[in-house]
Amino acid sequence: MSKTMDKEIEIQAAVFRRLLAHLDSRKDVQNIELMNLAGFCRNCFSKWTVAEAEKLGVEVDIDTARESVYGMPYSEWKEKHQTPATPEQLAKFNELNPKK
After folding, report:
1. Rounded Cα–Cα distance for residues 37 and 12 (Å)
2. Please, which residues have CB within 8 angstroms of residue 53's CB and are 6 or more apart in sequence?
3. Residue 29 to residues 35, 49, 51, 82, Cα–Cα distance (Å)
4. Cβ count near 92 (within 10 Å)
5. Which of 2, 29, 44, 66 is buried deepest, with most CB atoms within 10 A?
6. Are 99 and 46 spatial neighbours (Cβ–Cβ below 8 Å)?
7. Does residue 2 have a pLDDT over 90?
8. Cβ atoms of 49 and 60 closer than 8 Å
9. Is the pLDDT of residue 3 over 90?
10. Taking the complete model, does pTM exceed 0.85, yes or no?
């Protein structure tokens, strides 16, 4: 790998860590709000981590991936920070994500 490519990967990794830190600082923003506005959430990052690791032949389980995204076990994060979705949020989510 070239030095330029190495630096690009370092930059991308740093940007991702910064994004996770930003999301961590905004625990008030619920996953369903992220899904409804942007089409992805913290759980998506966890699933993408597992999928990309698999492509590289690395085994990462979903709980490990979630802990790296949430900064704590997912069950703990949900208990401390997740609020119930409102009927309006659920309706919007279902509108944007019709069952296939």
Report:
1. 23
2. 59, 60, 65
3. 11, 21, 25, 9
4. 17
5. 66
6. no
7. no
8. yes
9. no
10. yes
